[in-house]
Amino acid sequence: MMSRKVDMKVVVLGQASCGKTSLVERLIYNRFNTNYQTTIGAAFGARCMDVQGKQICVGIWDTAGSERYEAMSRIYYREAKAAIICYDITNAESSNRAKFWVSEVQKHEEDCRIFLCGTKLDLVMDKSQARQVDYHDISDYAEEVGAMVFETSSKTGANVEELFRCIVEDFALGHREVMSTLQDSAISLHDKKISKRCC
């Protein structure tokens, strides 16, 4: 664990078993494990990234997805600079749950930036019928709430690093500049590549 001061706090929220812990493990340790135990309360990890010569240390809180831990989760997103709100793209209910967390964060932490993260992309790359959450629908929703959308695979690592870099650059450089860069470099899903979109 890093001993230096954390520059920004990031919280990971979403329905139970939607892939939050796998995402955090890939973000911090660049690894994937199929045998995670259910998170109780929250787990903490940290990672640093260089942005234009400045090192930003990010503290990441992985919260429990069970509804009985909702009140506890509010403790962890207090004063968070960014929230990664996860949903499983093969589970429509998880996207509804993600919208609940967007509402909660925006109600209690108005300055917290929202990053919607569709997980388990690897499950639909070769089996498109497994998809239950339409990318364009979630993008339209993100536009309404001022969020950014990424679809990721913690198993393959697809788009996970891009998500993390976007979060850190958004914090270090300012939202407008990052938004412009993402819009210029967005990749179409129709090319069967990973897409990212910012509102």
Automatic annotation (TrEMBL):
Tagged with keyword ATP-binding: no
InterPro entries xrefs: P-loop_NTPase, Small_GTP-bd, Small_GTPase
UniProt keyword annotations, A-Z: Nucleotide-binding
A Pfam family: Ras
Single GO MF annotation: GTP binding
NCBIfam families recorded: small_GTP
Family to which the UniProt record says this protein belongs: Belongs to the small GTPase superfamily. Rab family.
Identification of the protein by name: Ras-related protein Rab-24
Organism for this UniProt entry: Cherax quadricarinatus
Lineage: Eukaryota, Metazoa, Ecdysozoa, Arthropoda, Crustacea
